[in-house]
Amino acid sequence: MVKAEQNFMNTRLLLVGCGKMGSAMLEGWLAQGLQAANVYIVEQAEAAEKLSTRYGINGITDVAGVPKDFIPQVVLFAVKPQILPEVIDAYKPLVRAETVFLSVAAGKTIEFFASHLGETARIVRAMPNTPAAVSRGMTVMCPTDNVSIAQREMCEALLKTVGLVSWVEDESLMDAVTALSGSGPAYIFHLVEAMAQAGETAGLPADQAMLLARQTVVGAGFLLDASEETAATLRQNVTSPGGTTAAALDVLMDQKTGLPELMTRAIEAARKRSVELAG
Q1: Which of 43, 102, 157, 204 lies at a 20 to 30 A Cα distance from 165?
Q2: Whether 99 contacts 73, CB under 8 Å
């Protein structure tokens, strides 16, 4: 464990893009002891200067600004997916056995990176979600076969700073990942909206209905996180036979029109769209 922490602190990192996701990760890394001198960040001139001043890292405007003697162990792409095709070719000279390319750009496949960086590039495709901005994210990663165990551990250590990490070996599963956890926060936000609207329909003032809905979802999430019980057990714990919760769940759990069927259709629609976008 001590060795892993030391390796993490000494990781030579090139971060390409430092928006909300990149900033959240950077703050987490530095808080856990990553050496600022080992971090180079490619950003626009004004942002690069501000990042250098604020964090003591090396802010540069172009990959050409990376010193010849700085060999990054991880090149992390955190730019918007639509920007990536414009900039990625400039990073091909960095391809070597000791460097892994880690991407959090949604929808960009391993094939996309290999077509620009070459077949020998070591690539890890990652799908985080927006709660990573508050270090409560869920990230799923998929590596190419040539990514070493040590490189997987480095990627995992970096992304664990913004939440939990899981791996899949079959890249085709990344579409399901995108549909479930990647897009999932939006489903929860909409659940809050729907609960609040239902509260208004039941007679509550709009602002109070939103307060109740929002805090109920936040509190339930904290309870789920803090408990060793399954979601099903927690649900059963608050459901008295013949009570108010049971009456509501009879509607929500209906096999034909309830939430399970609706959520299955919603996630399948998102998965199919993910396949279309990747193609």
Answers
A1: 43
A2: yes
- How far apart are the C-alpha atoms of 173 and 143, rounded to whole Å? 12
pLDDT in tens, 173-224: 999 999 999 999 999 999 999 999 999 999 999 999 999 999 999 999 999 9
CA 134 – CA 247 distance, rounded (Å): 35
Report the pLDDT value the prediction gives residue 85, as an integer from 0 to 100.
92
Residue 123 in contact with residue 113, Cβ under 8 Å?
A: yes
Tokens of 187: 């489903």
Q: Taking a C-beta distance cutoff of 8 angstroms, is the pair 122, 98 a contact? A: no
CB 77 within 8 A of CB 104: yes
Question: Among all chains, which residue has been given the structure tokens 């959520």?
Answer: 263
Whole-angstrom Cα distance, residue 102 to residue 16?
Answer: 10
Alpha helices in 104-205 (DSSP H): 110-117, 149-159, 174-177, 184-201
Residue 36, CB-side half-sphere exposure with 13 Å CA sphere? 12
Q: Residues 270, 178: contact at Cβ < 8 Å?
A: yes
In the chain, the largest separation of any two C-alpha atoms, in whole Å, equals 71
Confidence check: pLDDT of 238 > 80: yes
Whose CA is closest to 248, among 198, 189, 200?
198
Q: Give the contacts of 244 (CB within 8 A, at least 6 positions apart).
A: none
Bridge partners, 265 (sequence order): none
What are the residues facing 6 on neighbouring strands? none
| Token pair for 74 | 């991880």
